[in-house]
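Weekly structure sync, notes
Attendees: PL (lead), two postdocs, one rotation student
Agenda item 3: pending single-chain targets
PL asked that the sequence for the first pending target be pasted directly into the notes so everyone works from the same version. It is reproduced below exactly as submitted, 157 residues in total.
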Amino acid sequence: MAAEVKAPNYDFKIEQLQDFMPGQKRASLDQQFPGTTLQAQDLYLWKKYVITKGNYQVRVFTQFLNGKVADLFTPLPSYFSHDVFLQGLIRLLGPAEKIDRRGEDAIYFWKKDKLHHIYAAACTITCFPVYYTVIDRQQTDLPPYQPLWDRLRQIYR
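Predicted structure, written out during the meeting:
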């Protein structure tokens, strides 16, 4: 007798975050997903969206500049499988350009087109994802731009 064992990611795929990628318009996001405004400051607007599917919820924080996504940050549920999530990123982006390992933690970096993709994972008994962020590298020249990753990652440490 054979039994199929599925990773606890259920049917979450990295492609589900495509709607939130830098360059996407706020108007189309607001039509598809209910969002909560966290802060509006000068040219920037910070919003939180929640992807709910089956047994999980994924929070997606976005920073908008002039009505378009400048970057996204998503803390990932610890019950997701690191192996499944990382394999999805590799399938989408190719092998990581850089991996920074410290103790039982690792941060993976990709530069694809004009986007910076950063994924962090940690291991105890098993490995699990911590966060995923995508930054539009062209936005980094605009003062006083600070990626959400810098603003929010302290909360999740």
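Discussion points:
- The first helix runs from residue 26 to 32.
- Residues 14-156 form one domain.
Action: rotation student to compare against the earlier draft before next sync.
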